[in-house]
Amino acid sequence: MEPGTSRGIGELEVIQQLLPEWLAVVFALLTQLGDIWFLALVFALLYWYNTPNHDDIAALAGVWLAGMGLVMGLKEVFGFPRPDRPLLDPDLLPWFVRPVYETTAFASGYGFPSGHAVNTTIVFVGLAYVLPVGTPRKRYVAAGVLVATVSFTRLALGVHFLVDVVAGVVVGLSVLVGARALVNLRLAEQTTVSFGLAVACGWFFLVASEVDPDAIFVLGASLGAFGGWQLVVLGRELVSVSRPSLAVRPILVRGGLAALAFAPLNAALDYFPVLSVYSTGGAVGFVAAGITVVPVLHHSERARRAGVAVEFWLRMAGVAVRYLLTPEPWRRAVEFVSSSSVADWVRSR
Q: How confident is the model over 179-203, as a mean pLDDT?
C-alpha cells in the first residue's frame, strides 16, 4: 500500500453516498473560496481601498504567504497522496459545464495537509481579528462557517481525507498564533515580521521541494513584498524626520533590507533566460513589490502632491518635445543662425 493512503476512515464514501450528484458543481464552485486567486483578490481589494487598518491587512497578507510556503513545504516532506475518489465523473455533465467542473473540482500534488484549509483558516480567521466590522463574535462565527464550508467541499469532492483538512486548520491556527508571538517579541513592526516569516517559509518550501517552480514563485513573491514594505516604511520614516541627519539610519536599515530582498530577484532576471522559471519568479517578486508600494502611494497626500508635480513636468517635457519635432522651430533656428549679425560673430571667433 502506498504510504499515506490508509489515513482515511471511510468518511469519503459516507459523504459522497449521501450527496446528490447535482451538488458536485456547487461544491466545485464553493471550494474556490479557498483558492489562491480568490484570497489574493480579497487582499488586493482590501489593501488598495485603504481600509482603516491598512497595515494590519498587509501584515495578514504576509502571514498568508508564510502559511502557503509552510503548507506546501510540509506536503513535500510528508509526500502523502490524495484520495482517488472524485465525487462525479465529468463525462456525466453537460458539455458547457464540464470544463468548469474539471478546472475547479480536481487537484494535483500531495494531499497532506490541506492547503485550502490552511489558507482559509489564516485569511478568514485573521480578517475576523483585524477588520472592525460587526461584533467579534459575529466575525469569528462567519470565519468558522467559511472555513468549515471550504473544508467540507474538499472532502465531498474527494481530494482530501478528513485528517488532511483537520491538520490544515491546525497548521493555519498555529501560523496565526506563531506570527502573533513573533510580533509580541517586538523584533520589528508587525508587517516586517510577517513578510520576514513569509521569506523564511518560502525558503523552507524551496529546500523541501528541491526547487519546485511553485516554490520559486512563493519565495519570489515573499521577497518582493518584504522589500516593497521596507520602501513603504522608509518613506514614512523619511517624512517624519526633523532634520536630515536623522535620515541616515532609516536609509541604511530599510534601504539595506530592501536591497537584500531585491538582489535575488534582480539576479534571477539578469542571469536566466527570459520566461524561464527563475526569471519569472524574479518578475513575480517585483510585481509583488509594486502591489505593496503603489496602494500606499495612492493614498498618501504627500505622494499625491509629488505625483502631481512629476506629472506636470512630464507634460511640459512632452509639449517641448512635440514642439521641437515640428518644422517651424527648426526653420526659425536656421534663419537666426544665418542672420548677418550671428554670422559676423561666428567669423570673428
A: 89
Alpha carbon 76 to chain centroid distance?
Answer: 21
Q: Is 137 exposed, middle or buried (0-12, 13-18, 19+ CB in 10 A)?
A: exposed
d(CA 216, CA 233): 26
Nearest to 107 by CA among 40, 41, 27: 27
Cα–Cα dist 56/61, whole Å: 9
Beta carbons of 126 and 176 less than 8 angstroms apart: yes
Structure confidence by residue, pLDDT tens digits, 19-74: 777 777 888 888 889 998 899 999 888 888 766 678 888 999 999 999 999 999 99
- Residue 235 cell numbers, joined: 518613506
CB burial of residue 98 (10 Å; 0-12, 13-18, 19+): middle
- d(CA 15, CA 158) in angstroms, rounded, equals 9
Supply 318's cell numbers.
Answer: 512632452
How much is the pLDDT for 148? 94
Q: What is the 3-state secondary structure (H, E, C) of the chain?
A: CCCCHHHCCCHHHHHHHHCCCCHHHHHHHHHHHHCHHHHHHHHHHHHHCCCCCHHHHHHHHHHHHHHHHHHHHHHHHHCCCCCCCCCCCHHHCCCCCHHHHHHHCCCCCCCCCCHHHHHHHHHHHHHHHHCCCCCHHHHHHHHHHHHHHHHHHHHHCCCCCHHHHHHHHHHHHHHHHHHHHHHHCCCCCHHHHHHHHHHHHHHHHHHHCCCCHHHHHHHHHHHHHHHHHHHHHHHHHHHHCCCHHHHHHHHHHHHHHHHHHHHHHHHHHHHCCCCCHHHHHHHHHHHHHHHHHHHHHHCCHHHHHHHHHHHHHHHHHHHHHHHHCCHHHHHHHHHHHCCHHHHHHHHHC
End-to-end CA, the chain: 97
pTM score, whole prediction:
0.81
